[in-house]
Amino acid sequence: MYRQLLEQHIEVNAQREPAVQELKEPEKTAPISEKEQVKAQMEKHTVVEKPGKISEKKSTSSEKENASPSDPIAQKIIDETSRLSDRQRDILQKTFTTIEQDCVRNGLKIFVRLFAEYPRYKLIWPQFRAIPDSSLMNAVELRRHASVYLKGLGRIIESMRDEEELRKSMSRIALAHIKWNVQRNHVIHMIEPVLEVVKECNGYQLDEETRQAWTVLYQVIANLIEVFRCRALNE
Prior knowledge:
Pfam families: Globin. By secondary structure, this protein is an all-alpha fold. The protein has helices at 2-16, 18-23, 26-66, 72-81, 86-99, 103-117, 133-136, 140-158, 163-178, 184-188, 191-201, 208-234.
């Protein structure tokens, strides 16, 4: 192999500099030139070979990480987001338009109703624990969280027509809730407060189709939280 590399190297140089080749004395310079070139080729090959192997390993590892069939988490995300039909995605986008017009107010309504029904849920978030229930509605901490919550929900709604982006948005939301020890049932119990706000923001109209669309969305989020929670516990 080294001999072939050397011959190719000499042939290329001969084509580029024919005049120089004619002036050289082969019997004196050729043996030295050949040894030096072989040595250079061997050194070059040795330097390149190691990075090549490392690069190959990285590529293989990356391919394994990104391959959906071998990644059960990725497959579960696909299975869950696929539950939302095109019709349901249209409904979610349409009904959310009026909700996002006042993120803080509508987010507050959701959390106040959730905490009214499940008072202990307030303890999930450390920033709410010291706030009396009577002051919670006007607390800066809750107003800030309500705004962030609805904006995060908005990113999910906006990505409804981009399957890959939807999966990423869903995964980000699920992962963000794990650190607060938010569990599946916490999200499921939020469905009714959300539906009440959806109804209020859309002319107090809430048909069964709209109810089902929002219910499926929150079921998907709840299920993904559980998927990531199980993975975290097993790691």
